[in-house]
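Title: Prediction job returns without error message
Component: structure pipeline
Severity: low
Priority: P3
Assignee: unassigned

Description:
Job completed but the reporter wants confirmation the result is attached to the right record. Sequence as submitted:
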Amino acid sequence: MEIRPTTDEDLDVFVDTLHAAFGSFRETPTDGGGLWWSALEMDRCLLATTADGRPVGTAGAYSFELTLPGETVVPASGVTAVGVLPSHRRQGVLSAMMRHQLTELRARGESLSVLLASEALIYRRFGYGPATYTQRLTVPRHRAALDLPRAQGTADGSASGSVELLRRAECGEILEEVYDRYRRAQPGALSRPHRWWAVRAGQPPISPKPRYVAVHRDADGVPDGYASYALGDSRTLTVDETITSDDAVFTALARFVLGHDLVSQVVFKQFPPGHPLRWQLADFRAGEVSGDTDWLWVRLLDVPRALTERGWSMDGELVLDVDDPFLDEHGRYLLTVRDGKADCVLTGRKPDLSMDISDLGSVYLGGTAPSTLVRAGHIRAHRPGAPALADALFRADRSPHCLHWF
């Protein structure tokens, strides 16, 4: 078997092999574009072939930026399009491709990679751990009234400005600009390169599927948030995503879609866990949460560098013993945090916590408490106070959330 990089000339073979691996067929092209593979970076894709040149496996990567706690933005490879033909599974093809890819990502000088896992059992053995989570919130229209804030001295929660209704085709530049501002302030968010918007690759509102877009403008008329939505069967209004860094703007957009006439229910997809909207409903039970699941998985490629790149909200010191069985590596690191910055070096000191590299990926963005993984039996604590200290250190000021599909 050979694993080789691809070129633009390999696009059709790559896409056909990937579809065959999943037992699916290519979508029919549309005039508006929107084929998901049109954003593939063929110079970052791999093909696994047999000795006689037949393609049997694929793996790719996108060039993204990932926002870390502390609003630090770093390069991150978005692993995608991973598949092996049914005839060649459980023969080491996937492991060989993943090992080859991780070696290439390190050679690019990147400290971490990310992916969306089609199956939760596959990628932990390659060092990836679930790091952000998402859910779906469903609100019946007749129970969708929002309550007024009860805290004394609190405004009514409405943002200054206005909401304008546009069609997707009318506001491409607005969506791109608003999303880019949002993702730079949201831990766990990925960039959406201009190429994605230009070729309309991905899911709505990037894709050419018809959508209405509620655009919020501030008091000066500058767009500072949007909600992309469509009405479907049974008069269900589905919100693809609500993008803003301002809670009051989110409330204004939610009020807009929840007040839509001739709607039976409103479904918020990609809803951030812990978001205050459920508490703003006059009827708390009106908001039904479902589809609670993992989303972004993180894999550290350079432990010291990755830990020093993110921001930290308190001072402290931990010794982390990290095992990376897939790459046959092991390191013990002294993490020292002062004034929001970290120093991380190899050490011979006794460890406070021992963990797999995938567990470090899970806690890295602050969306998974280290103590949870201690209680689950994944992380080993060597002294009583270590889990609580780790929780306080790794906690982010803002919960990480990613809604970009790739």
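Comment from assignee: result matches the submitted record. The longest strand covers residues 55-68.
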